[in-house]
Amino acid sequence: MSFDACYDRLANSILNRFTSDQARERAAIDKEVSQADLKLKVAELTGSLAEIKLTLTEARSDAADKDHEISRLRKLQQRLVDETVEVYGYRYQKRTDGKGPAAGNPMRDGCFQKNGLLIEIANVYGTGIQNLRCPNCKAEYAGLHTYTD
User: Which of 6, 76, 92, 120 has the most neighbouring CB atoms within 10 Å?
Assistant: First the structure.
């Protein structure tokens, strides 16, 4: 065998070996990059899942708050029906002794509509029996009927 043939054979052997080593290294690097990409995607999905769980927890809390508010409003409505009566456009306590439909001073409608409070308007002392004032919002009234015995 000639020197040139030996040289070509040796060069091809070295080149083939170098190329196969490179291919193995490239495959290992590709595998590591694929695993890193996979881990990154898993981390992103885990973060998204945590955000979804947080959103669901907040939604459950909001739903529970709304259920509580609905229950409170139903009780208030039932109290309004059971314990009061409307006379001449004003709401009064229901009379339970059978002497008439209403008892006491009227309720302040504005406080009920704004805050859900059934507050009986009180007499303003020193100004006569016809002057009334809401103890909550201080609105004054005159000429409203007070039902007493």
Answer: 92
